[in-house]
């Protein structure tokens, strides 16, 4: 049983992550007084996309086809090292948080390359904006994980969250609070949620992430949508593990509490999206700079201790 | 209890950064006032027990920094008709990076200063960083009113620094400093008003030369 538990966790993540977007959309619809799309809408979309055929432009090269596959593969690989409810993923090793950051960077790099490969000026613009945001979001992510590593004294992501206890929240409350705030801003930025990017926008000029995938269709688009859902789970799970440090020891109970926390985080994202408008493109970097500042402060607080 | 004090310290540091990045004058005045109130609450949180004298003293400080100073500043702003933005001489990203660097330098300095051990971590770096933010506001913002604001932020920093040394002995000293600051803000408000009446602006950059003669390329006003 102990050997297959990590596998069950991994499969649960793969099956449940599209549900997060459903929860976000339901919360947004509830705020706007609408009925909203079904909770399982993304599953239906993925199923519909899976039996369509992809169409490729004659001007594109293999990079365009490789983009979605490498993007999905990188995030699948990253999820294998991610702890689930305080239990290590089956790929966890010392220093794996740096590996995860590079995997996410690889996924981003190939998405951007595939967008540039189409030769469309809109996609080039989206790619440029994506990288512009990543310039601040990636160091902020790296430094917040480094602060967490410093706070817990562990080098592997699973070890960090395993060592995190209610007592460490008492001892290092400022640093942990700062890095949780930083992680939440990074979650919004990396998953192109509202203050940074609007996932529902249909005007090419204002799109950031959505415009990069305009030319993908069929299973390729399915890979991208599924990869985005997994990425949302990835960042949500980091926050959920940070704010939920108590481990009872019971696998089932911990797992259920963790899943409930994920739903709460998704609802929180929905609330944020409902109550605030998208920032002006010039102001976005200040938001990301705030995340960077939070994580630098968290790291400074921990190193001085 | 100390957790709350440390969270207040973090809040004060974040307010420093917000002051460095905020472009609106009224927001800056409010931020400095909130910082003063947070600094006034700090001794109550750090000491643990609440005593009558400390309470009265904290109440006085909060009243002065949270109500009187902002009121005087808003009054000076109204009278001078200062525009709403703060006119920074360097960009906001550069300001925020300078502030962060100041905090890093002050945490290094704070670990080396031979001070009595305080029960609350990070009082000294936070106070030094606050003083630095005040200097930054004074040196990199063009308007005279922002320089008064920087002066108030420096006072906040000095007050927090005093907390690191003692928790309640320096009441009288601190009271004297506060009264000085009060008078200074009052006088500076009047001075700014006179400057703006005389020159139609409070841009200190254009007051570098004390002469009646203007070069034609400088004649902006």
Structure described in brief:
The complex is a heterodimer of chains A (305) and B (221). Chain A has 305 residues and is mainly α. Chain A is built from 12 helices and no strands.
Molecular structure report:
- The complex is a heterodimer of chains A (305) and B (221).
- Chain A has 305 residues and is an all-alpha fold.
- Chain A has one domain (5-303).
- Helix content of chain A is 72%, strand content 0%.
- Chain A is built from twelve helices and no strands.
- In chain B, 73% of the residues lie in helices and 0% in strands.
- Chain B has helices at 2-21, 25-47, 52-80, 92-112, 123-140, 144-165, 171-199.
- By secondary structure, chain B is mainly alpha-helical.
- Chain B has seven helices and no strands.
- The interface between A and B is medium-sized, with 16 and 21 residues.
**Structural class by sheet pairing and helices of chain B:** mainly alpha
Number of strands of chain B: 0
Largest interface (C-beta under 8 Å): A-B, 16 and 21 residues
Mean pLDDT of chain A: 88
Radius of gyration of chain B: 18 Å
What's the N-to-C terminus distance of chain B?
Answer: 55 Å
Largest sheet of chain A: none
| Overall spatial form of chain A | globular
Keywords for this entry:
heterodimer, A: 305 residues, mainly alpha, 12 helices, B: 221 residues, 0% strand
Show the helix and strand layout.
The complex is a heterodimer of chains A (305) and B (221).
Chain A: H1 5-32, H2 41-50, H3 62-80, H4 96-117, H5 121-152, H6 157-163, H7 166-171, H8 173-190, H9 209-212, H10 219-243, H11 251-275, H12 281-303
Chain B: H1 2-21, H2 25-47, H3 52-80, H4 92-112, H5 123-140, H6 144-165, H7 171-199
Helix pairs in contact in B: 1-2, 1-4, 1-5, 2-3, 2-6, 3-6, 3-7, 4-5, 5-6, 6-7
């Amino acid at each position: 049983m102990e050997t297959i538990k990590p596998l069950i966790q991994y499969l649960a993540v793969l099956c449940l992550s599209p549900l997060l977007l459903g929860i976000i959309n339901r919360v947004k619809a509830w705020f706007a007084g609408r009925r909203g799309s079904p909770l399982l809408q993304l599953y239906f979309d993925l199923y519909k996309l899976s039996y369509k055929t992809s169409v490729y432009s004659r001007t594109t090269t293999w990079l365009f086809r490789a983009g979605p596959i490498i993007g999905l593969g990188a995030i699948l690989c990253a999820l294998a090292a991610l702890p689930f409810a305080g239990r290590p993923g089956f790929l966890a090793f010392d220093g794996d948080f740096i590996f995860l950051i590079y995997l996410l960077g690889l996924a981003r790099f190939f998405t951007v390359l595939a967008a540039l490969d189409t030769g469309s000026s809109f996609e080039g613009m989206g790619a440029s904006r994506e990288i512009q945001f990543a310039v601040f979001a990636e160091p902020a992510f790296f430094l917040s994980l480094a602060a967490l590593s410093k706070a817990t004294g562990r080098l592997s992501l699973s070890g960090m969250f395993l060592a995190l206890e209610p007592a460490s929240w008492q001892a290092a409350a400022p640093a942990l609070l700062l890095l949780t705030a930083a992680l939440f801003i990074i979650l919004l930025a990396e998953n192109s949620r509202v203050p940074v990017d609007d996932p529902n926008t249909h005007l090419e000029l204002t799109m950031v992430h959505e415009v990069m995938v305009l030319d993908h269709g069929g299973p390729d688009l399915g890979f991208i949508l599924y990869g985005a859902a997994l990425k949302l789970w990835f960042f949500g799970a980091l926050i959920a593990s940070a704010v939920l440090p108590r481990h009872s020891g019971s696998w089932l109970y911990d797992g259920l509490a963790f899943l409930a926390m994920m739903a709460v985080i998704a609802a929180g994202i929905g609330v944020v999206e409902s109550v605030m408008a998208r920032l002006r493109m010039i102001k976005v970097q200040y938001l990301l700079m705030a995340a960077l500042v939070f994580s630098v402060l968290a790291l400074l607080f921990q190193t001085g201790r | 209890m100390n957790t709350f004090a440390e969270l207040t310290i973090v809040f004060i540091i974040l307010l420093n950064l917000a002051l460095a990045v905020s472009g609106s004058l009224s927001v800056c005045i409010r931020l400095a006032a909130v910082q003063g109130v947070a600094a006034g609450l700090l001794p109550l949180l750090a000491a643990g027990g609440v005593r009558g004298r400390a309470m009265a003293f904290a109440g006085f400080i909060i009243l002065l920094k949270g109500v009187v100073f902002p009121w005087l500043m808003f009054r000076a702003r109204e009278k001078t008709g200062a525009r709403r933005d703060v006119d920074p001489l360097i960009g906001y990203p550069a300001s925020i990076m300078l502030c962060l660097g100041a905090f890093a330098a002050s945490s290094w300095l704070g670990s080396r200063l031979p001070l009595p051990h305080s029960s609350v971590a990070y009082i000294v770096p936070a106070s030094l960083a606050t003083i630095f933010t005040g200097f930054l506001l004074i040196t990199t913002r063009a308007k005279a009113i922002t320089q008064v604001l920087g002066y108030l932020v420096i006072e906040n920093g000095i007050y927090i620094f005093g907390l690191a040394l003692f928790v309640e002995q320096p009441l009288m000293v601190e009271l004297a400093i506060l009264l000085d600051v009060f008078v200074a803000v009052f006088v500076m408000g009047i001075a700014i008003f006179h400057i703006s009446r005389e020159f139609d602006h409070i841009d200190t950059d254009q007051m570098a030369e004390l002469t009646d003669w203007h070069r034609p390329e400088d004649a902006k006003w």
